[in-house]
Amino acid sequence: MRRHALGQSLGGASNMTDVGVQPLCMESYGSQRAQRYQALPDGRLSCVPDRPENGGYHSLRDIFMSVFLPQGYPESVSPDYLAYQIWDTVQAFASSITGTLATQAVLKGVGVGDETSTVAAATVTWILKDGTGMLGRILFAWSKGSKLDCDAKQWRLFADVLNDVAILMEILAPAFPACFTLIVCVSGFFKCIVGVAGGATRAALTMHQARRDNMADVSAKDGSQETLVNLAGLLFSLLLIPLIVDNLHLTYSLYGLFTALHLYANYRAVRAVCMDTLNRARLRLVLRQFLQGGKVPGPALANPQEPLLLGFQRQLRMTLGAPLHTVASRVVDFQKALEGNSTNYLIFFNQAAGTVSLLLHRQADSMDVIKACTHALVLEALLYGDVATSVLEAKSLLDLQHRLREGDEPGESENKEYATVCETHKLLDKIFPKFLTGLTAAGWVIERNLLGPEEWRVDWTIPGKKTL
């Protein structure tokens, strides 16, 4: 009876006045609902919504949000979640339509509707297509799997461009019957690369968006959103298929239209992502602006400037976490790198080859990795950049740049590189503490990073080791 009375008082609280009512506490459900509890004069507990609902619209909205958005939205996800998901929904719809065009073309190419084709020939073509794709999946995961976390935005855009190329190949394949099997096999190879790159980068972005250790919930709701979009795409495709059968001009026109929409939506989606962990591209951006202006830009300023195309800038080839045998063949080279070094990394610079290799100590943490990568990027700026506009240590940077770029006498190159590394060590000791403080103040996460170090670690602090 008491539980029933309490339920009645909670349910009918909105009809009661606040005269003689004592407030007890406030309660909220994320930012969507708020209500207060009051003690009535007769001792009962009353619940009064602070933001009362206005009937069915809000109820339908709540149902939609519960089904398709993570619990606790928007507090439980990153601030860029909604913008990214909107554009991701648009690109998924466009991809669903172009995928339908490709499927129709492939089915026509393998002989669906053609009385002269055989089931065996179609089956062999399909098996070769799937088998080639499986091989592509394994090879791409082996060669690039460890890099997908570091440059998730770039690889996500790459995957979508490659997906459009694969779809175009499938649409064009029936026009080249002699090469049909080869074309669809290459297309299957590309699509499986897309599956690896797209799935891996989606996981990286989901990890970024999940702010309450709710990665599974964010991923599951993303899957629900994609399923809903694909369902809408299927319904649209049912209306579209009768129009495109035996109409190549309309097929190509629709492919061009939806591919343009797909690429634009993907570009806007990855541009909407604002990651607060440092990868090499973002570290390069913030370091350059720090040297030029003395201040570290925050994630909101740096992310829109991050390049989305891979491999089109002149850069040093950096190996972070390199094994010792790849950079030093003599004991004297190793001993020279250790001289005067008080950091948890060793740096080997080869100007002629355009490479910089960094050996990490076994005890190196995230800040050591950031400092090592910063050191390499300073060398890169001296070699390829313009340090004349720098406000920090401008004279030292210009002197170093002049020495690096001047011609070498025979046999002087190695000594010059060693001297440059020593000078940049001293320079970094001056500016890096301020740089690190600026990173923290600007909102960058430094406890972890996406700089992509290899797994090799060196311990050069062994007690009782032999010195030469």
Tell me what you see in this structure:
The protein has about 475 residues and is mainly α. It folds into 3 domains: about 1-50, no CATH class; about 80-270, Growth Hormone, Chain: A (Up-down Bundle); about 280-440, no CATH class. The protein is built from 14 helices and 6 strands. The protein has helices at about 1-10, 55-70, 80-110, 120-145, 150-170, 180-210, 215-245, 250-270, 280-295, 300, 330-340, 365-385, 395-405, 415-440, and strands spanning about 20-30, 35-40, 45-50, 315-320, 345-350, 355-360. The chain has a 3-stranded antiparallel sheet with strand order 1-2-3. A hairpin with a 5-residue loop joins strand 2 (about 35-40) and strand 3. Helix 3 runs parallel beside helix 5 and helix 5 (about 150-170) packs antiparallel against helix 8 (about 250-270). The longest helix is centred in the middle third of the chain and has 30 residues, at about 180-210. It starts with a helix and ends in a 26-residue tail after the last helix. The model is unreliable at about 1-20 and about 55 (pLDDT under 50).
Task: Break the fold down into its secondary structure elements and pairings.
Layout: H1 2-11, E1 22-29, E2 33-39, E3 45-49, H2 56-68, H3 81-109, H4 119-144, H5 152-172, H6 180-209, H7 215-244, H8 248-272, H9 280-293, H10 299-302, E4 317-320, H11 331-338, E5 345-350, E6 355-360, H12 366-384, H13 394-405, H14 413-442
Parallel strand pairs: 4-6
Antiparallel strand pairs: 1-2, 2-3, 5-6
Helix pairs in contact: 3-5, 3-7, 3-8, 4-6, 5-6, 5-8, 9-12, 12-14, 13-14
